[in-house]
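Ticket #4471: structure export looks truncated?
Reporter: QA, pipeline team
Priority: medium

Steps to reproduce: submit the single chain below to the structure queue and open the exported record.
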Amino acid sequence: MSGIPFVTLEDPRYGEAVQVSPLVRRVVARNPSKFTYLGTGTYVVGAGRDVAVVDPGPDDDRHRDALHEALRDRSVTAIVVTHCHADHSPLARWLAVETGAPTIAFGPHARHDHDDEHDDDGLPDVPADEPAGDTGPAPAAAAGAVKMEESTDLAFDPDVRVADGEVAAAGTGWTLRAVHTPGHTSNHLCLALVEERALFTGDHVMGWSTTVIGPPDGDMRAYLESLRRVAGRGDEVLWPTHGAPVTDPGPFLEAYLEHRLAREAQVLAAVRAGHRRIAPIVLDLYAAVRPQLHKPAARSVLAHLVKLVDDGVVAVEGGGRPRLSSTYLPA
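Actual output as written to the record:
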């Protein structure tokens, strides 16, 4: 259904600092999962001694040691985090102590009074034994891989909060400018590498998969608006935290957006056809998707339903805010 020209990363070269562009090296953590693809890609920006690190990654000893080696002859001047999921930000604390560099982000993860995470979505629990995402190719798991869920690093609070459009970090020959892209999380930040017309997209855009939008912090309306904004930037390459670069962003982003809008139309049609709960909607719309991914898919369906309720075309039976456990009706 997606029509998205997904790209794959053939060899993650775990633990190596791989030169992927004149100004960028990447070190991939060995933490493949249904959320992280082959693992978290930490980027080291800068060709000279002074560098910035983007998304230090999970609290994993092997990845920490690999970063220590990659940064041995460099001076880290900035540690930039796209958002506060546990596969992106935890090693920022260690790296800040190790280098004395400030941590930089849009802000900490937002706190919410209500959390649907433990609501009954009506879907069976299926072991997450395949490292793959919402849609897209399913790579083979690496032997002995650390499998981590997309939990939130609530302890992370940056030393420096950067606003949309501000320079997040800069050094000799490189500049990282903040692009606030809420949707996946409310504090999600992309980083524009000005000199290479490149964008580090975190989890906002991933080359291997669509992105899970999970309320209450995930917001589908904000995500669509952010996606349109990124599509209009004209970047020459996108560097997701997970997977290979997107080297032809225009058609890719157009297909990414079309997929989301088509999914929204499908969710609305499912409610109008008589599906009242999220579980049957997921089983219908994601019939071709691995069962391990149905629970994260349910969170994205919820995000679509929140938007449709706000749009006035779907209603929650009995009123109240949309939840995984709610019953939905055409408005």
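Status: closed, not a bug. The export was complete when the record was re-opened. Leaving a note from the reviewer for reference: Confidence is low (pLDDT under 50) at residues 129-149.
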